[in-house]
Automatic annotation (TrEMBL):
Keyword Ribosomal protein: yes
InterPro entries referenced in this protein's UniProt entry, alphabetically: Ribosomal_uL4, Ribosomal_uL4-like, Ribosomal_uL4_dom_sf
Transmembrane segments annotated in the record for this chain: none
Keyword rRNA-binding among UniProt keywords: yes
Region spans: Disordered: 46-78
Gene: rplD
Gene Ontology terms for molecular function: rRNA binding; structural constituent of ribosome
Protein known as: Large ribosomal subunit protein uL4
Pfam families named among the record's database cross-references: Ribosomal_L4 (PF00573)
A single cellular component GO annotation: ribonucleoprotein complex
Swiss-Prot/TrEMBL keywords: Ribonucleoprotein, Ribosomal protein, RNA-binding, rRNA-binding
HAMAP family on file: Ribosomal_uL4_B (MF_01328_B)
Length: 210
């Protein structure tokens, strides 16, 4: 059983603790599930708009460029042949969709595995629910400084959409804010430290226990 202190925005201890669910933060990590989920995330981000022209799509004359025999060289029927400079490409890339589907339980296992790795590495911080009156980047920088996370890549997980918090972090290269419903394995592993708002933890348990 793993307990963590709940911190204030100032970095001080609130005096309260939260018990992390063993079904989420203490599972036996499945590296292959993580690999597949990360692979799907990166594949889904690919545009797949690459395209090269084949010989049928090249503009140019179809006239036979030299006689069939007697030249001492190989026969050539068209200037658009792939063997000539400016000709079409053989088996070139075509627009395609790289996305693929994964089983929902496998994706849940991948996220649990990533969270278990972070818990094992003591890379979790539990924060009381944030309230920003207005979007200010300097307020978010101060928050990270209070938590001693200024020089680390962080992922802040909120329970509900908080536009002010999101906008405050948007200009910071190493800081990301995600709703608990939008968590993905890639970003969980990419962050050096995970900062969970108190209200996001209960929603996470509900989300990953379905």
């Amino acid at each position: 059983m793993m307990e963590l202190a709940i911190l204030k925005q100032t970095g001080e201890d609130t005096g309260r603790k939260v018990t992390l669910s063993e079904e989420i933060f203490s599972v036996e990590p499945n590296d292959h599930a993580i690999y597949l989920d990360v692979k799907q995330y990166l594949a889904n981000k690919r545009q797949g708009t690459h395209k090269s022209k084949e010989r049928a799509e090249i503009s140019g004359s179809t006239k036979k460029i030299k006689k069939q025999k007697g030249t001492g060289g190989a026969r050539a029927g068209s200037i658009k042949s792939p063997v000539f400079r400016g000709g079409g490409r053989v088996f070139g890339p075509k627009p395609r969709d790289y996305s693929f589907k994964l089983n929902k339980k496998l994706k849940q296992l991948a996220r649990k595995s990533a969270l278990s790795y972070k818990a094992k590495d003591n890379s979790l911080v539990i924060l009381e629910d944030l309230v920003f009156d207005a979007p200010r980047t300097k307020d978010y920088i101060k928050l990270l400084s209070n938590l001693s996370l200024s020089d680390k890549k962080t992922l802040l997980v909120v329970g509900e959409n908080n536009q002010n918090v999101y906008l405050s972090s948007r200009n910071l290269q190493k800081a990301k804010v995600r709703n608990v419903n939008d968590l993905n394995t890639y970003e969980l592993l990419d962050a050096d430290s995970l900062v969970f708002c108190e209200g996001a933890l209960s929603k996470l348990e509900t989300l990953l226990s379905k």
